[in-house]
Design a protein that fits this description.
alpha/beta, Rossmann fold, 2 domains, eight-stranded antiparallel β-barrel, five-stranded parallel beta sheet, 13 strands, 39% helix, elongated, disordered N terminus, UMP-CMP kinase 2, mitochondrial, transit peptide, ATP binding, dTMP kinase activity, Thymidylate_kinase
């Protein structure tokens, strides 16, 4: 492989980077980027193919984020405009694989940040998920290892490597590289400029196609694409296909109980079921729960499809059991949706979809409970309970514990759910008092 080292920083000349033929082709359609910083704030920037004018001054914030003395690289996984479900799954798997590779070897000394590439107004397809790698040592080995990663990617379309450099005037530029037949070729060069923040986070219009599936068939299509490399996906689909597409709730009440880990949800659901002589169901159901760890290691689109289809299997069980007795459900669709939204939307609370957005609406083809209760405790109380549990944490449990912004986004998403919404229950008092409050709510709301 022939890896050509680019011009050194400080020798980047205006005429060379201003070749419109190279730049215009690489930059069309116009793309923007949103970078999630360690403090969960978002930085937006764009690429312009034109050379800087005499009045243009370097943007100090972008220079601090992307410029010297460190070296920054961008790597985004392309999604073909109008691509179907299969292309989305392939792109997600490539992104997932790159994430694991960028946490090893020479990349361990680098800062890895979440990067999203998108077109303004949702033009030209879905956002492209990727990474910004910031090398504090500007080590040539980092660039060489990145190009080797690129060369190993055989999927089409293959990702490009962006490399950020400053010219003598302090303007920041991005060179774009790709691998062709084992050779590293420059395919674009454009100036980095600030960009306005869009009214909605760029992933929000894409959520229904990627993680918060509006119906059973959309989620099913995702798992269908996975049967060749996840044998358990076929088994899940067979169980789903045994469930009627339209089910009706029986005459008895159905109550879903939601809550973050360590809010007392397991204890409360069991106690309520015992008190009401109700059937206790859980999502995902036991018939697919054995494969949970397999799907938890997959990209978000696959993981969320698994949990979404689990809800439809549970719905079939609810329909059957609620004809004979009350039903209590330990987590249901609200959990699937809230964790997906909080994970997929980068940044803080202000970047979540606004209240009453369609993403918070219950799927029309999924059986609804009569009541949804959301158990809450203070962050301090929840942390104390977690430390006393002594059980292995899932990835999301660990994220809830370590990242207060993520926890707040999950809680806010729960509170914005509609049709049905969540009734918040303070689970801080004693077990007996919480049980009394829950039973009183069920009696008043379900009757």
């Amino acid at each position: 492989m022939a890896f050509a080292r680019p011009l050194l920083r400080g020798r980047l000349s205006g005429p060379r980077v201003g070749r419109r033929g190279v730049c215009a082709g690489a930059m069309a359609p116009p793309r923007r980027f949103v970078l999630e910083l360690p403090d969960c704030s978002l930085a937006h920037f764009a690429l312009r193919a034109d050379a800087p004018g005499p009045a243009d001054a370097p943007d100090p914030r972008l220079a601090a984020l992307l410029g010297p003395p460190e070296r920054s690289y961008s790597l985004c996984v392309p999604v073909t405009p109008g691509a179907g479900c299969g292309a989305r799954v392939r792109a997600a798997r490539l992104h997932h694989r790159l994430l694991h590779q960028l946490r090893r070897g020479p990349f361990q000394r680098c800062q890895l940040l979440r990067l999203l590439c998108y077109c303004p107004g949702g033009q030209a397809g879905s956002p492209q998920h990727g990474f910004l790698l910031r090398d504090p040592q500007d080590d040539p080995d980092t660039r060489r290892a990145l190009l080797e990663l690129l060369d190993a990617c055989q999927e089409a379309p293959r990702p490009h490597l962006g490399e950020f450099e400053a010219d003598p005037s302090g303007q920041l530029w991005q060179r774009l590289w790709e691998m062709r037949d084992g050779r590293c070729l420059q395919v674009g060069c454009a100036r980095v400029v600030p960009a306005p923040e869009p009214p909605l986070h760029p992933v929000v219009p894409d959520l229904a196609s990627s993680v918060v599936f509006p119906d059973r068939e959309v989620a099913r299509a995702v798992l269908e694409e996975c049967t060749s490399f996840i044998p358990e996906a076929r088994a899940v689909l067979e169980l789903v296909d045994q469930c009627p597409k339209q089910v009706q709730k029986g005459k008895f009440q159905v109550v879903a109980i939601e809550g973050l880990d360590a809010t007392g949800k397991t204890t409360v659901t069991q106690s309520v079921a015992d008190s009401l002589k109700a059937v206790l169901l859980r999502s995902p159901p036991s018939c697919i729960g054995q494969w949970r760890s397999i799907f938890d290691d997959e990209p978000a689109i696959i993981r969320r499809a698994f949990y979404s289809l689990g809800n439809y299997i549970v719905a079939s069980e609810i329909a059957k059991e609620s004809a004979k007795s009350p039903v209590i459900v330990d987590r249901y669709w609200h959990s699937t949706a809230t964790y997906a939204i909080a994970t997929e939307v980068s940044g803080g609370l202000q970047h979540l979809p606004p209240a009453h957005h369609p993403v918070y609406q219950w799927p029309e083809d999924l059986l609804k409970p009569d009541l949804v209760l959301l158990l809450t405790v203070s962050p301090e109380e929840r942390l104390q309970r977690l430390q006393g549990r002594g059980v292995e944490k899932t990835r999301e449990e660990a994220e809830l514990e370590a990242n207060s912004v993520f926890r707040q986004k999950v809680e806010m998403s729960y509170q914005r759910m509609e049709n049905p919404g969540c009734h918040v229950v303070d689970a801080s008092p004693s077990r007996e008092k919480v049980l009394q409050m829950v039973l009183s709510l069920i009696e008043n709301r379900c009757n």
